[in-house]
Amino acid sequence: MARIYFHLPILFSRGLSYDKPNFFNVPKLTATLPWAMSHEPCALSHEPCTLSHEPRAMSHEPSAMSYIVSVRIFKLFLAFNFCLSTFVFYLLSFVFYLITMIMYKSSFFYPILITCIILSYSVEVSSQKIAFTRQDTLRGSITPERAWWDLKYYHLDIIVNPADSTIEGTNTITYRVISPSRRLQIDLQEPMKLINAMMDNKVLGFSRDGNVYWIDITEKQEQGKIYSMVLSYNGKPKVSENPPWEGGITWKKDKNGIPFVASACQGAGASLWWPCKDHMYDEPDSMLISVNVPENLTDVSNGRLRSVVRQKNKTRTYNWFVSNPINNYGVNINIGSYLHFSEIYNGEKGPLDCDYYVLKEDLEKAKIQFKQAPLMLAAFEHWFGPYPFYEDGYKLVEVPYLGMEHQSSVTYGNGFKNGYLGTDLSNSGWGLKFDFIIIHESAHEWFANSITYEDAADMWIHESFANYAENLYVEYYYGKEAGSEYVLGTRKNIKNDKPITGYYNVNNEGSGDMYYKGGNMLHTLRQIINDDDKWRDILRGLNNNFYHQVVKGSQIENYLSEKTGINLKYFFDQYLRDIRIPVFEYYIEGNELTFRWNNCVPGFDMPLKIFISGIEKTINPKSGFTTLKLDIDNAVIKTDPGFYVASLNLTGK
Ligand SMILES: [Zn+2]
Fold this sequence. Notes:
CATH architecture of the largest domain: Orthogonal Bundle
Shape: globular
Largest sheet: 8 strands, mixed
Oligomer: single chain
Helix content: 25-40%
Strand content: 25-35%
Number of helices: 15
Bound molecules: zinc ion
Radius of gyration: 27 Å
Strand order of the largest sheet: 5-4-8-2-1-11-14-13
CATH topology of the largest domain: Neutral Protease, domain 2
């Protein structure tokens, strides 16, 4: 998915809480204090931190000392906030007010300012508390009723009626018994309804529990044996008001008044429109998707078109076969008056069929714009290894929404323009050199469709790598510096509002920072490795090692630690599970450079490339101060901008 978050000014208003103030992030907080108000929040700008040249940041000044102490207390206070009731933290706010009153005896300004900030943030925090329900657990966890059977095959066989926005049909689920049980969980979201369940021509009992159906199997289930169940269902599936961010079906018409219909359901889940095991951990080995539509329409789904069967009632059934494992949200229907053109791409695994489906009025534009598809394949096969679904081909399919990474059937609605709907998300200029949807969504064929997260909390596996892939595409065609400018340019979109990882087992995604911050985290990792060939080997290795697998985030983290030979535990703790930007704090005394990491998780020990009066050096800051003797006096220190960190010259000299 391509999710875009624009950075708005910091506002302490609940009504404008979408862009939340970030007080865990010391550099940004620094920028909000009066003595530093002229600064850009350094960690969000393209440039290395500008704080280091400001005299007011001197640690020996009383105001800066007080500030540092205040920040510490403040961070502790915020940590408690998450656990306390509104009453308690309002009480604590008052206590804090008294403390700061004592600290700033002669002035009321700072105590009042800080207390106001706390109270504003407290309102934010209390409004953000997430309450998960039993339904979230049923949707997001591997329940006992899911765990005992292993998906082998789906045959989704449906009639799509654009005239009344309904879907009806069957899904035949074939599974292998892992450990025998009799009750099975099937997900189908309201208002869709299961109307019948059959096994071996016998009707099965079932009951509804919100978006879940409990199916009770009468036949004895034997370990290792394969069984099939036919589920009949119908209904008016949820209509998406904002696809692809809000899951649902889009029922539109093209310029000629002909139905133009598409599904998109990442997050909400495939059970929004068909009954299935709606958890990412289990994928069928293959799938047949049969879609019956009025005869003037074409359905394009995943995989290869096996046949088109003309029916007597002026309809046609399109049979699409996916010969690889497929994740649930990757399954899609796209229905319209499509024209088709195709080409062969000769890639790393031989000839790859590339098929393109667009509306008639867009055919000529598409023939030009989709020339980027083979360019994309060349770049990503270079960086990531072979396209992961040669057997199913590659498709671009026009849809009435922005786009989505549907497996072997990438959907496209970017207006046949470069950039993201014609804009450059990086402000570097490089974002207009490619069609964002073709590049970003197709990158998901490697990171999402081949390597798939098990839990939505680890969605960074999809989005951080797909975001990072954008700059690798730029680098492939325009050089390393261009790629770097692109990824650094996207930092302006980072919010540091909450951790990149979400809550596990409740189908919860983390922060939208999984895109730009995730991409910059990977770019930072590349700087640490400092070996481009090795980095490319690791990217290709990931795709080889986890080819067509569902993975936990920890597996990817461990793989990267193992292959880089660096313990990246604290690195990932910092960037995935914390919202602070590490601050490289240092000072120069004569020919000595003293430095450390601050504003970071305990144990954070990332190596850092710095420039000492222009001369490159990699150092290993820890949380305690380290002193290094330099060859010159009063050197000027700069950090490598490729690292997503802030820096603070404690003396300002
Ligand atoms: Zn995406």
